[in-house]
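Sample pair:
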Amino acid sequence: VRFFDGTTYEIPKLREDLPAGSAVKVCVRPNEFVFGQGGMAAEIVERVFFGVDIQYTARLANGQELTITRDVHDPMMEVGEKISLGFNRQVVNVFDAGSEESVMKDVSAL
């Protein structure tokens, strides 16, 4: 999967019959993002404490904002900090941008 900034990720469970260049939506749970392991450039624009978790809002270069949840014991990011943002590729979900149907292996429509 290639993102707007040219960053590419190999998604292990993506169907092989998906035509190259297909427009897709990538869905990542807030707790599956990873800081500092290559990936997309982002800036932390908000940090909120929720008991044992910290919820961050990160803004990508295209203006899209993502919600990220981290344990309070993880290294803390500061508002305004520039980060590299990746995600756990084993648990991501990918959908066709038009039909919004899953393009993942072994996933059937509801």
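DSSP finds no helices and six strands in the chain.
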